[in-house]
Amino acid sequence: MTTSHYIAGHWVEGQGSDCISVNDPALGQPFAELMAASVSQVDQAVAAARSALPAWKSTGASERAAFLRGFAEQLGQRREALVTLQMRNNGKPRHEAEIDLDDAIATFGYYAGLAEQLPSKNRTVPLAAPGFTARTRLEPVGVVGLIVPWNFPLVTSAWKLAPALAAGCTVVLKPSEVTPLIEQAYGQIADALGLPAGVLNIVNGKAETGAALSNHNGLDKLSFTGSNSVGSQVMRSASAQCRPVTLELGGKSAIVVFDDCDVDQAVEWIVAGISWNAGQMCSATSRLLVQDGIADALLPRLQAALENLRVGNPLTEEVDMGPLTSQAQWLKVASYFATAREEGLQCLAGGHALDREGWFVSPTLYTDVPKDSRLWTEEIFGPVLCARRFASEEQAIAEANDSRFGLVATVCSADLERAERVADALEVGHVWINSVQAVFVETSWGGTKGSGIGRELGPWGLSAYQSVKHVTRCLG
Fold it and tell me: Exposure of 73 by Cβ count < 10 A (0-12 exposed, 13-18 middle, 19+ buried)?
């Protein structure tokens, strides 16, 4: 596993000082290791992308679309290996790993279609002033750095890589050091398809590698998904270079349940919003706002549902929820359990790590959590749900919006007119009504407030990698 970096169309050994240990979180044990890329190798990757840019951005839209469809097809051909790797390195249950792969495949297919439409987007612009003509060109922004997280590897990289290549950009991709292996499939696919050397480069590493990429003056744009603490550092480096940045950061999202909702259905939506990927989602609906009239019926059923979730090793057991992906995350979630005990929070379910090998914690529910509790205000990134009751629609909206984050929310109500009204009032980037968190490539993804800058997916995801040029000509 030493030749883990894909630079200028070649697999090369890492020359950095960090050794990356790749772990199976269900066992708490490493199963692979690789050497990080050096700062010099990051320079080489950026230089390769810069060298490849002129030819790639001049490549016809239909040819770029064919490459993107090739990525989709090749991902499908590697299905079992990639699903198994998601299960082993992330701890995802099989059904979640399969959805991840299907999401990545759909993303490349979707942006192949948008790439084919690009020629029609260059158009004449009508002018009110006589004697002039003008036209618009949508051009690739240039060389982009893509930094992706560990909770949805393969998926988040597809959300960035596919639109960047469709737009005509060349890229340097840095996967998370926690899950560095699965993104190597993109380099293997590039080889198989004959993607021109330097169009896609992959460098693995820890903080030093990420800093070398985000600070590099050879980039024209940076797209980052991850924590707010690292995102602020990325934003500072972008400001020093005066270059555009897309940030998809944290969340502390609300799920609002009105008293006209079917209790069993509401429990299903609530459990999915906090237990999917063991709660390791920026979109986890970890703040439950439940109306007074339904709370006494809903909370005991929610407690039972969480306690009945099958938690275990997805490679050896039939499970609903796997382990946390890293020991660091396991320790972080455990620290919040300790904080809850210190704050005297009422725990209806869970509230502890599981006594077994690996990085497992119990699905957890705290009730009547004060608004100033750290567990109510801070992103935990684990299967930890905090509940509060509300009396009126106005109170629900106010408490849902009372957060420094604004990524997503869910509204559960049989009154669809009210549900739509509440959805419009929530200060977030995406709202689900009476649904699990179904994410479609045609819709946008991103948030308000501290949840980031810009949007991914849909046509907005493509626009993030395009610049607009106007050409105005005097007819005289």
Answer: middle
Residue 440, in any domain of the structure: no
- CATH code at 415? 3.40.309.10
305 CB-side CA count, 13 A: 21
Domain count, the chain: 2
Instruction: Give 409's Cβ-side CA count (13 Å radius).
Output: 27
Closest by Cα among 457, 454, 424 to 438? 457
Encode pLDDT of 350-374 as tens digits: 999 999 999 999 999 999 999 999 9
**Starting from the edge strand earliest in sequence, which strands make up the sheet with 254-257, in order?**
346-349, 364-367, 384-390, 287-291, 254-257, 408-412, 430-433
Q: Do 179 and 269 share a domain, yes or no?
A: no
Residues marked as catalytic: 248
Q: What pLDDT is recorded for position 119?
A: 87
The pairing of strands 384-390 and 364-367 is parallel
Which two structure tokens, joined as six digits, stand for 362?
A: 């119990």
Closest by Cα among 383, 401, 397, 410 to 450: 401
Q: Return the bridge partners of 255, or none.
A: 288, 410
What is 451-472 written as a DSSP string? TEES-BSHHHHHHTTEEEEEEE
Radius of gyration of the chain (CA): 23
132: CATH:
3.40.605.10
pLDDT for 343 equals 97
Q: Kindly state whether residues 328 and 310 are assigned to the same domain.
A: yes
Q: Which domain holds residue 268?
A: 254-433
- Contact (CB, 8 A) for 386 and 408: no
Answer yes or no: is pLDDT of 212 > 60: yes
- CA distance to 46, 111, 176, per residue, from 239 (Å): 19, 29, 23
Strands 143-147 and 221-225: parallel
DSSP string, 262-282: -HHHHHHHHHHHHHGGGG--T
